[in-house]
Structures are given as C-alpha cells and as structure tokens.
Amino acid sequence: MNLYMKHPILLALAFVTVGLFCQAETVKDREGAVRQDRATMENDARWIYNDFQRGFAEAKRTGKPLMVVLRCVPCLSCAGIDAEVLKRAEQDLAKLLDQFVCVRVINANALDLARFQFDYDLSFSAMFFNGDGTVYGRYGSWRHQREGQNTTITGYQRALEGALALHRLYPANQLALAGKQGGPIPFKTPVEIPLLASKYKSDLDWEGKVVPSCVHCHQIGDAIRASYRDQKQPIPEAWIYPLPAPETIGLTLVGEEAATVESVAAGSIASTTGLEPADEILSLGGQPVISVADVNWALHRAPDSGALSVVVKRGGEKKTLRLMLPDNWRAQSDISRRVGTWSMRGMALGGLVLEDLNDAQRSERGINKDRLALFVKHAGEYGKHAAAKKAGFQKDDVLVEIGGRSDRITEAELIGQILKQHQAGEQVKTVLLRGTERVELQLPIQ
Question: What is the rounded average pLDDT of the residues 75-101?
Fold first, then answer.
C-alpha cells in the first residue's frame, strides 16, 4: 500500500502542493482545489471540516481545548505551512494534536466575529479556545507566511504546547486571558457587513460554483473599512494598521520559537525598554504569550500611547520591563504587502503604489533626507485604482508635497493620514517631480 493510500491526509497535501506550486493546469483550478480539499478532509478521523460550532460542542463534551485552523485553500501564500501541518499531523505532532479538538475552516462566511478576531490578511491562521469560547492564543504571522514553504513549524509546536499549558490552568487563569479575547466589532458575521451582504450567503454553494460563494478572510477587513467610509466616519487606526508586527516597535523574533527575541533595532521603541537578544517574552500587556501572533495581538490591543508591561525570561530569571509607546506608533507598521492595503490604496491614493526613496536616491534627485519623497512604483489602470492615473499621475513620479505636508513620511503613514482626515469626493493638492519638472495635481479621494 503506498503512502497516500495509507494516509489519505497526505493526498490533500500532495494535491495542494503540486497544484499550487507547479506550473500546471491545476494552478488555475481554484474550484478543483477547494473540492479536493473537502473530498479528502471532511471524513478525516482527526479534523472536523468547516464546522467550528460542532468543534465548540465537541470541546465542551470532551473537556479538550479547541484548535481552529483557518485556511484559504486556493491562495499560494502559506500553502507550504498548511501542507507541513497536515503532514506533521501524521507524524511527530500527532500526540499534541490528539489532545485537541481540531477544526479546519476554509471560508469566512459564517464566522462569529466576536470570537474569531485574528489577522484577516493571512491565508493560514490558527486559534486556540476553551470549549466555552475563551481564547487561549493565536498562531500565524507574516514571517510564517513568507517562509511557509521552508518552515519546520517548531513555532507551531510551541503554540500547541502553550495552549495546552493554559488549558491545564483554566479557569484559574481566566483573568490573565481577558486581554486575549476579541474586542468590540460592529457586525456579528461577515455576511452582515453591507459590502458583503448583497453578494454572499452564510453557506457555500457546493451545488454550483464554490469559489465565488466563498468570503475570504481579507474581505472582512476590506468590508469593515468600507462601512466606515460609507458612513463618512474616519477609519480607526486598528483597521488601518491591524495586528502590528513586532518589527513595528523594533523587535525581530525568532521564527521557530514562541516569542524569543532575535534582535532589537537601534534607536527603536523596543531599544529603550531594555529588551535583549535571547529574551523569551512570557507576557505582553499582561497577556500570556504562546506565539508571535500573540505578540501581534497584544500590540493590536495596546493603547495609542503609554506604557505596556513586558515580562521576559532571561538566563533562567524573570524580569519585568516597561515598553513606552509614543503617539502615532502604529503608523510605523509596514503594511505595504498586506492584501488589505490594496483597497486602502484605492481609497486614499487613487490606486498609486508608493515607496519612500532611500538616501542615495534622494541625493541623486537633490531632495533632502528629511523631506517627503514618495516614488510612484505603480499607477493602477482599472476601476477605482485608475483614479490617480486619470487625474494625471504617472509611474516614476515623485511626490514631494501633499495636502501642504512636505516632511518625510512613508506610504503607510500617508494612507493613515488621508483616511483619517479626508472623505470620498475630496481632492488633495499634490506637488510632484516628473524628471526635473515640478507638477501640481489634485489627488482624488474615494
């Protein structure tokens, strides 16, 4: 009997890996990928397929903690880590996973948004719960997404172990877990958000075309931001800069550990805290940390400014440090590669993709290091993303003044500023360099 017949779960692994990473017909067969995932996984002995409510009921019945893996099957990003999780479920992770009720969710249509709050821009995430709905932690980060094909998923194993440790202490540790729970959110499920309500239903259309009936996780953020714009309200910073990566405050964490400091950037927010390489972060903002995603979540729930406690293990001893967050610290997030940023570029930049020129490039153009110099890498050509191009903006332009502001800022900072200060229909005076010529244009806000 060959390996795939002996372990059907590996057949799904093979299909996804070959279908998504080979230049074959299946690269375009999104429908086939989803249907194959269902055919292979829905009767698997370990995984409850696409039914988190059944998962909560089973967790209550058995007393086990619940793990819900959220996976966008057709997406290329994180296919590697998804495959590795499935493969390792048959190998050395089996004893750990046996202690969980395991659920695999492939669409966001009916998610309970009060419970399922995570990084919606990722295509692979996991959440760990008590059967009563209490969140133990999260797993999944941009580093995992970038390195998913080559991951050893040791960090995933650490998260599983951490969730089990918290479960053993529950409910005595319930107060410490309070910060891990979801915050206020204006909609119960994604299909109640106006932008999605007219297009999607709670259930997938397995009898017709499945993929077009599926709400992708990133659409949640897109739709919520659009709802604020439709009501002519400023978009909250937490939706512009969601789940800030540790690098936002100057921390790089070891990818294959729970939350161990790899390096601290000189002059960063973290550098003033006293954090050092090899420090193991045990808690942040009072929340026990079991993964990099938990650090992101703690930063997500952190104040707009002020102190955040950090407990670390250093050389076998615990130390408590204070992280001081300055005003506007969230705007230091690198959101350039987030899928949700694409829709924000349409709203705030008329479809422009901007990049801050480095010092050498500035010198070539005679621009001071402390002045605005945002290079137009791309000008959209379709729909709302063509608005800037129609207004006269071109690829290779360099924005040197916008809305009267000419100090050095990043694309992320500019997007946040515009979305907080301007509404659809307004125009913002912009000065740019086109070669050696200064050109004045009006940037349309959508």
Answer: 71
